[in-house]
Amino acid sequence: MGVSYPPRMTDRAVATRAASHRTGAPGSRRALRVRRVLATLIVLVGLLIGLDYAAAAAAESVVSREMRQQLNLADDPSVRFNNFPFLAQAIAGTYKSVDVTADHLTVGPLRDVQLRTQLRGVRAPLSELLGGARTLSVREAEGTVRVGAPDLEKLVQARIATSGLPLTVDKLYIDGMDAAGLERAVEEDGADPAVLRIDPPTAARIGGTLDVAGQLKTPVTVIAELQLAAGEAQIVPRDVRIGDVGDDDPLPVPLPRAQVEEAIAQVLALRLRPGDLPLQVTPTKLRATSGGLEISGLTGRLTLGASGVTG
């Protein structure tokens, strides 16, 4: 039986195979071109995103300086242009919303007030923004002032000190309450049924640790109604609970429970005026949030310029 050998390749076939190894198959060349195009697109997209963020940062810096002057702030506030991409809005000269935030403001006896303002429908060409815009047209603005629990605690302690009673309250907290929370307070905690007449959006639960004459440390909880009148926030206590839920026994101190409860109600009956809301915003809403009180309102069209704010 003979041995079979593969057919001999001609010189032309050998040359063709060698050329194929050198240049690669047509499919490989196409894949290489696609990869190069994709890599180029990724680089361009990255550059565009970087340019967008850089332009937004430059505009935010300019508006921050402008808002510092308009809001009479000691430092430049934080400014953020919402709705990516920024450059698409800049080309049209209209920005859907701009957030302005300033923290740790001092207003009267308050030392940690937060100011938040959202400008909506802002109109200003990008050239003016980057060049130091002196005029911004705003469709509407919403302003919010937030007073935190630490500031409320300081006010409460100051009022207790002037009362002459041997009481202190610390670790103060504040939260909002809904209708179900008010019902539970009455049915399970023994709160005054009158609290059910509070409109839930205006209800607040305020609590802390009560120290009586250095002889008793016990939780204290107050259900209060929040009222807003002439831009002034008012806390109106409606129910005071000292100690464990449902505990109506006399306190183990030389003060009647009723007297201590009345004192707590009086010192928590606070009136707060944390400055007028910015940009001619009229306060219309007061609510309790986790850890503080918020006063907010809305205004219509505004023009922010070197001469101030005009409606």
Q: Describe it for me?
A:
The protein has helices at residues 11-23, 26-70, 86-92, 126-130, 149-163, 179-187, 257-267; strands spanning 78-81, 94-107, 110-123, 135-148, 167-176, 203-212, 216-229, 232-242, 271-272, 282-289, 292-299, 302-305, 308-310. It is of the alpha+beta class and 311 residues long. The protein has 7 helices and 13 strands. The model has no long low-confidence stretch (mean pLDDT 84). It is elongated. The strands form 2 sheets. Strands 1, 2, 3, 4, 10, 11, 12 and 13 form an 8-stranded antiparallel beta sheet that branches. Strands 5-6-7-8-9 form a 5-stranded antiparallel beta sheet. Strand 10 (282-289) and strand 11 (292-299) form a beta hairpin.
- Could you tell me the strand content as a percent range? 35-45%
Helix content: 25-40%
**Classification by helices and strands:** alpha+beta
State the major sheet. Answer: 8 strands, antiparallel
- Span between termini: 108 Å
The sequence of SSEs as H and E is HHEHEEHEHEHEEEHEEEEE
Q: What's the total count of β strands?
A: 13
**Which residues form runs of ≥5 with pLDDT under 50?**
none
Shape field: elongated
Q: What is the radius of gyration?
A: 33 Å
Mean pLDDT: 84
The total count of helices amounts to 7
